[in-house]
């Protein structure tokens, strides 16, 4: 079933900070990130680790973009600090936010990857847009809002290999 296939990531990682960015840059021109509990704890500002990560990725020649369901008041200050563009109120898992991000970066689904911490929004949407997906463990699950805690319980069957 295509619906169920779209709920599985292509790859898993403990943290965006432990990925082999030099290797990824040989295959992909751009990376789209979720923000909350992908890069920092939910609601936290961009920290030095995030700033250094984006600097590293940009030095490798990769484009970056944030795609978030949050409002602009949350996403813009984060994006400004890590020096990247953003799509806010993206409506994930709809494809349109991912497609908007790729259009603005001048990339395609074939040369873009996505990293997020939630299956029913992040991974489902990016898979539907045809983008290679990496599911990361949440940075700090204790900061999740109650609706995310509930969603994570339902995500458990999809947090394993197909």
Write the layout of secondary structure elements.
Blueprint: H1 2-5, E1 11-13, H2 21-27, E2 30-33, H3 48-59, E3 63-67, H4 72-82, E4 85-87, H5 96-105, E5 112-116, H6 119-128, E6 132-136, H7 146-155
Parallel strand pairs: 1-6, 2-3, 2-5, 3-4, 5-6
Structural account:
- The protein is α/β, with parallel strands linked by helices.
- Helix content is 40%, strand content 15%.
- The protein has seven helices and six strands.
- It has helices spanning 2-5, 21-27, 48-59, 72-82, 96-105, 119-128, 146-155; strands at residues 11-13, 30-33, 63-67, 85-87, 112-116, 132-136.
- A six-stranded parallel beta sheet has the order 1-6-5-2-3-4, with helices on both faces.
- The mean pLDDT is 90.
List keywords for this structure.
single chain; 162 residues; alpha/beta; six-stranded parallel β-sheet; 6 strands
């Amino acid at each position: 079933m295509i619906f169920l296939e779209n709920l599985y990531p292509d790859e898993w990682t403990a943290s965006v900070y432990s990925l082999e960015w030099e290797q990824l840059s040989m295959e992909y021109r751009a990376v789209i990130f979720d923000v909350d509990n992908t890069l920092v704890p939910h609601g936290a500002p961009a920290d030095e680790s995030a700033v250094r990560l984006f600097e590293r990725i940009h030095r490798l020649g990769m484009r970056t973009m944030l795609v978030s369901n949050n409002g602009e008041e949350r996403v813009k200050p984060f994006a400004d600090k890590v020096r990247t563009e953003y799509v806010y109120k993206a409506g994930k898992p709809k494809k349109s936010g991912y497609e908007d991000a790729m259009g603005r970066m001048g990339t395609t689904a074939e040369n873009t990857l996505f990293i997020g911490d939630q299956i029913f929004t992040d991974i489902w949407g990016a898979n539907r847009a045809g983008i290679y997906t990496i599911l990361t463990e949440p940075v700090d699950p204790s900061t999740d809002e109650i609706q995310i805690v509930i969603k994570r319980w339902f995500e458990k069957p999809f947090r394993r290999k197909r």
